[in-house]
Write a structure and sequence with these properties.
Strand content: 5-15%
Structural class: alpha+beta
Strand order of the largest sheet: 12-13-15-14-18-19-17-16
Largest sheet: 8 strands, antiparallel
Oligomer: single chain
CATH topology of the largest domain: Alpha-Beta Plaits
Length: 809
């Protein structure tokens, strides 16, 4: 494995070599000490660093016989990989010696006294064999057991017995091991895509390589190759550095330790550390995927059918493995796609065509096939021929099945050779908790999501390629949308798209955030908002509506690939409505407003003072428009321990009549525990509408009972008055770290400034709140005086300060 961006320089080499030497020295020191504990006298020594004594100060004294007993290391010390915070895992083997308890005491007690953490057991060979048969963890440890001191033949006998049982029961034990790994992966996640990964237990971590070695011991699959071992060594060095930096035996690399661990490893910074971790973890995961496919075939029920006949292009049969054509130059063999006999390695479209065939068939590419393509297959010339471009579109159009195939090409270095700009985003971390993946994996996930939307657009090929490239600018400085548009233009031309299509791709990347940002921060019923969209897409004359259509689909694909915190039904509905309105405006029409409530519910709100509906996490309120409605409703939700994830307020614009009905729609989830009783929530909301509930007093009592956490670093809040965003209202944009009652405090501050919220878009993305309010003054007009605008901004900003600062002020 090669570290990315040349980070494996002299300083990194030296730092990592020092860690390897430290582990080797510690293994030797521990072996020497443990041998002395088993064989002879040991002085208490310094805590954590025992000193061996003897007649000359360096040898053992009082040697005791060790016939029929042996001290065995399992786990990391058995592999001579014990990091500073690792546990010592030892087994005392014996042949039924009556004094084995005394022998154990003279070994275990000095270890405990030294402060070293110890996992220990005392077994006969028979007992060790039985435990390994019953306990998977014990079996994995004993498979790598290493003798430290004592009788050689005893250890050899135990290892031979455990290995024999492991191989004899391989079909059952490997199926059990596979299920255990799947559960661990579900619990710990993908190391490559986590900001705070568990280096040992996460998918692609150290444990996975240890498991691969156990599978190899069964003779079902080969041992990890050099690339996997290099990736493992990097993870081990990171774990070692983490233990030294923190002084603890932790395996989770938390954010605050990134820079210190990177420095200890001689790397530039935490981002370089994360990129190298991602590459190492993906190397391990990719190799593991192939290994587990072999295991799955091995563990499958055995077939009793006759020998299969291979299918050949000429139709002639040959006894052997079945080979089924899946595409031009590609055949399926034993559940994987391999090159067909006679495949033309000089065909510039072959690599992409074979990859597309595999993805469309839902099958993985064989390791040997990927290696052969990387070493011998021709690459498309620039510009690409139409066959290569079509094959890329076909690959991406396979949807989720394309992800594994893309990863195979990437592991072989083919993606960077096909798309040189890919190197800048490859394994690049995204330090935003909303994002689930590295930049490159996010792009592939977005393209896979876009495959489900190709029926919704007139140019599926541009949607797929645009989705693949929409964040390509994150590898460059500055605004990634602007720099990415330049890269997309170059790559579009490289792929052989014509000039018109290249311009659409360029605009698609430049404006890929246009619809999401506008829909969630502006009033989509305001004609000026629609004008923002139509004006932005005018840089592709004659194809504006096509671009809006592509942007709407890309927004869905991008949001789904980002993570659940960045996407939901509310956002999807807003983007769809904005795209519909923009398309209608481009066509010369005026779309009617989309109703939120039925006519009967609106009538009920007008004549009965208000309508309240609670359905799961959705809370809808319709009531006569009046000051404070939004923040009082948000306060009731906060009283019931509900955190507002999204909120939408729509109300009549000036001139629509005083009897207009305001509609509030919330998505709210419990801060913790079970959701509140819907009937109780509805009752309090109705009491609020009838002015029979003192929301402020109730919230004050709850605030006094809450424990305020301090010292957690978060970015400071920001309040912006957005100029020229609306012709009928003043737009106030608020960004802050989310906490209980935030919407209540912001709305109350606006109310104290004498402002009424006419429309609002409230979203919580991860731990951040992004709230936009359309406000008017007492005369239902936007604010114009700079001094008053400044006072509003400062007053809202003061309300956003943490409680401890508010009290201090």
């Amino acid at each position: 494995m090669t570290l990315v961006h040349g980070t494996l320089g002299g300083e990194t080499h030296a730092a990592r070599a020092a860690l390897v030497a430290a582990r080797a020295a510690r293994a030797g020191e521990l072996d020497h000490w443990l041998t002395g504990l088993l064989l002879g006298g040991v002085s208490p020594g310094l805590r954590g660093r025992p000193v061996l004594t003897g007649p000359d100060g360096g040898g053992f004294t009082g040697h005791r016989p060790v016939d029929g007993v042996a001290l065995v290391a399992v786990g990391s010390h058995a592999r001579r990989e014990l990091t500073p915070g690792g546990d010592l895992d030892l087994v005392l083997l014996h042949r039924g010696r009556p004094d084995v308890a005394e022998v154990a005491d003279r070994v275990w007690y000095p270890i405990w006294d030294s402060g070293v953490r110890l996992d220990h057991s005392v077994r006969t060979v028979h007992e060790a064999r039985e435990v390994a048969r019953a306990d998977m963890k014990a079996a994995l440890g004993l498979l790598s057991a290493r003798r430290i001191a004592g009788e050689h033949s005893l250890v050899d006998e135990m290892r031979a017995a455990v290995l024999s049982d492991w191989r004899a029961d391989a079909r059952k034990r490997l199926a059990e091991l596979a299920e255990m790994c799947r559960k661990r992966w579900e619990s710990k996640g993908e190391l490559a895509f986590l900001l705070e990964p568990d280096l040992k237990e996460a998918h692609g971590g150290l444990r996975d390589v240890n498991v691969m070695q156990a599978v190899a011991a069964s003779w079902v699959a080969s041992a990890p190759d050099a690339r996997v071992r290099a990736a493992y060594d990097l993870l081990l060095d990171v774990r070692h550095a983490l233990h030294e930096v923190t002084g603890r035996g932790t395996d989770r690399l938390v954010l605050q330790e990134h820079e210190a661990v990177a420095q200890a490893l001689g790397m530039l910074d935490g981002n370089v550390l994360l990129r190298n971790l991602a590459e190492a973890a993906r190397t391990i995961t990719y190799a593991g995927d192939h290994l587990w496919r072999h295991v799955e075939r091995f563990c499958a029920p055995r077939r009793t059918s006759a020998v299969r006949v291979a299918r050949t292009p000429s139709g002639a049969g040959a006894r052997g493995i079945e080979r089924t054509p899946v595409g031009d130059g590609a055949v399926e063999q034993e559940g994987e796609v391999v090159l067909a006999r006679g495949a033309d390695l000089g065909d510039p479209a072959l690599t992409l065509r074979v990859a597309a065939a595999a993805a469309q068939a839902g099958l993985p590419l064989a390791l040997a096939t990927v290696g052969r393509l990387a070493e011998h297959a021709a690459l498309p010339p620039v510009p690409w021929p139409a066959e290569a471009r079509d094959a890329l579109v076909s690959l991406l159009g396979a949807g989720p099945a394309a992800i594994g195939v893309w990863e195979a090409l990437d592991q072989a270095g083919l993606i960077v050779r096909l798309l040189p700009d890919w190197e800048r985003v490859r394994n690049r971390p995204q330090r935003n908790p909303v994002h689930r993946f590295t930049v490159d994996r996010h792009l592939v996930e977005a393209a896979a999501n876009a495959a489900a939307l190709t029926r919704e657009v007139s140019r599926p090929d541009l949607l797929l390629v645009g989705s693949l490239l929409h964040d390509i600018g994150k590898g460059w400085p500055g605004d990634h949308s602007v720099s990415g548009a330049v890269v997309a233009r170059d790559l579009g031309a490289r792929m052989g798209f014509d000039d018109g299509d290249v311009k659409v791709l360029e605009a698609l990347v430049r404006h890929h955030l246009l619809l999401p940002d506008t829909a969630t921060r502006r009033d989509i019923t305001d004609p000026k908002t629609i004008e923002v969209v139509t004006s932005a897409v005018s840089d592709v004359p004659g194809r504006e509506r096509e671009l809006v259509e592509l942007l709407a689909a890309l927004a869905i694909a991008d949001g789904l690939a980002t993570g659940p915190g960045a996407w939901g039904n509310w956002k999807a509905g807003l983007i769809a409505e904005l795209a519909r309105r923009a398309s209608a405006a481009l066509a010369g029409g005026t779309p009617p407003p989309a109703p939120h409530l039925s006519p009967s519910e609106l009538a009920l709100a007008r004549h009965d003072g208000g309508s309240v509906r609670v359905l799961g996490s959705r809370v809808t309120i319709a009531a006569p428009n009046r000051p404070g409605l939004l923040w009082k409703a948000a306060g009731v939700l906060a009283m019931h321990r509900l955190a507002v994830r999204t909120a939408r307020l729509s109300s009549p614009a000036p001139g629509d009549g005083a009897l207009g009905t305001a509609v509030l729609e919330f998505t709210a989830v419990p801060e913790y525990g079970n959701p509140p009783d819907p009937a109780a929530l509805e009752a309090d909301l109705r009491r609020m509408l009838a002015d029979r509930l003192d929301v402020a007093a109730r919230l004050e009592r709850r605030a006094r009972s809450l424990r305020v956490r301090t010292g957690i670093p978060v970015p400071p809040p920001r309040v912006t008055i957005v100029d020229d965003a609306s012709s009928t209202a003043t737009v106030v944009e608020v960004r802050a770290h989310d906490r209980p009652g935030l919407l209540w405090r912001v709305g109350q501050a606006l109310g104290e400034c004498g402002l009424q919220v006419r429309a609002a878009q409230v979203d919580t993305l991860g731990s951040d709140a992004v709230d936009v309010f359309y406000v008017v003054d007492e005369s239902n007009r936007p604010l114009t005086e700079p001094a008053r605008l400044s006072r509003v901004r400062q007053h809202v900003l003061a309300a956003l300060q943490p409680p401890d600062r508010q009290q201090a002020g």
